[in-house]
Structures are given as C-alpha cells and as structure tokens.
Amino acid sequence: xxxxxxxxxxxxxxxxxxxxxxxxxxxxxxxxxxxxxxxxxxxxxxxxxxxxxxxxxxxxxxxxxxxxxxxxxxxxxxxxxxxxxxxxxxxxxxxxxxxxxxxxxxxxxxxxxxxxxxxxxxxxxxxxxxxxxxxxxxxxxxxxxxxxxxxxxxxxxxxxxxxxxxxxxxxxxxxxxxxxxxxxxxxxxxxxxxxxxxxxxxxxxxxxxxxxxxxxxxxxxxx
Length: 223
Fold this sequence. Notes:
about 220 residues, alpha+beta, elongated
C-alpha cells in the first residue's frame, strides 16, 4: 500500500510540474487581446483639410459668329432640279449679241421694251426641262414673272396679222418663235431666253419652274 501511495504522489508531482510548465507557457505567451486598428503617428498628426467649395470656371466671353446673308441683287443665279443644273442671268445684259434678233423683231412690231433673262442649263435629270417660268421677287416685295421669249414673239407676230399686215414679218415671227422654243431632253445642254414685262432693278429672291407649273426650286446668287 505504501508503494501505491508513493506512486500516486509521484504522479501528482509530475502532474503538478506539467501544470506549472503549462502555466508558464500561458504566462509567457502573448496575450490574445482583440485586434485594433493602429493609426500611424504621422497620420494622426495631420489635420483634416477643410473642404473649399469653388464655382466652376466661366468660359471666356466670345464674340458672336457673324451672320452670313445670302447674296442678292442683279447677277447670276444658280439652281438645281432633279440633277439638272442651271444658271440664270437676272437680268441679262441688253447688249448681249444673242438678244439682237428679239430686239429687232420687237422694234419691227412696235412693241414696248422688255427685260431679258438668259438661262444656261445642263440637263442631268430624267425629265425634260422647258424653263416654264422664273419669278423674281424684288427688294420691295414685287413679283416679276419671266416666261419663255417665244411667248413674247407670238404676241409681236400677231401685230402683222390681218389684211393690212405683213406676211413676211408674220412668217419671220413664226421662224423666230420656233427656233426659240426650249425643250431640253435628258443629257442635253442648252440656252433658254426669257422675258419680263417689267424692268428688274433689284433682286431679293429668284424662283424657277424648270419643268412645268408645279415643280418649283429656288435659285441662289453665285456671282
């Protein structure tokens, strides 16, 4: 029995030693305290900058863009229609030699002077161009209609009709009217002559009826 008590005492001492060792381990081990955010000393010392509210930069003042006005007044006007391109002299120079036959016949008939327009057309469209009418709007708002010169020739020719008329002059009017008729087929180029009863001294806008009374385009001054 004594041996057994001795063994028990030895075991108790051994256990006590282990406990002491473990206690020492616990004591020597770093304490498992909760993790905390470590603020660097430098960061802690920097004061929080104040927030400055500034207005957005204002754009530098710019001068307004110049307003471009369309050219007006007598000159050369250009138009396009379904691919066809044309220019019109509004009004034409009365001294243009191409106008002499019409001026001579007008004087022969004793008719009053008219204003001439000359159109050069390159028909790139699929329609026939006949230059049915050109309407000129003057600076004071007046509308002046210019129609094919053949309309005027036919009127002048009628002055030679009747018993006291001149057959020669009448027939001359027929020839001149026929040669002045304008029907420009697709792909062709030609010159059309038109006349207006009123003088054209100012021009604000020009409208063209290239292929009849329904289709209208506006011509812009190019020269």
